[in-house]
Write a structure and sequence with these properties.
Mean pLDDT: 77
Structural class: alpha+beta
Shape: globular
Strand order of the largest sheet: 3-4-5
Amino acid sequence: MGRPAASVAEWKAIRQQVLARAGWRCQACGVRRRLDVHHVVKRSHGGSDFDLDQLVALCRWCHDQTDAPYERGRLVVIGSGAGQFTFEVVQRAGRGPLKPNPTFAHVGKTEARDVAHGPDWTTVNSQSDAP
């Protein structure tokens, strides 16, 4: 069993805080539409609605990739504290070992800067959360 969830009013305030901290952009790809707040550690695994350092703003597409099958490539979000995150796309070929995915494209984007070519999404897209 996971930790208690925030009330509707609490979650609304938390969501606003997380999205504002992210500049109203997806922290993985920079898109400004259809933003969700993703738990880096699910509540069912000990995460919390109240730990802002473990909540990240993601567009709907990137958020969906956090639960994608490893065979297709899964977006893995790693919290490094103070609202900073690293993003990696991890892929497993068949039943082999996990490995960084060399290419991961955001559907509907055409600019070269919107395609990740490596394991560290923030570096590849020139979108670092670092101050």
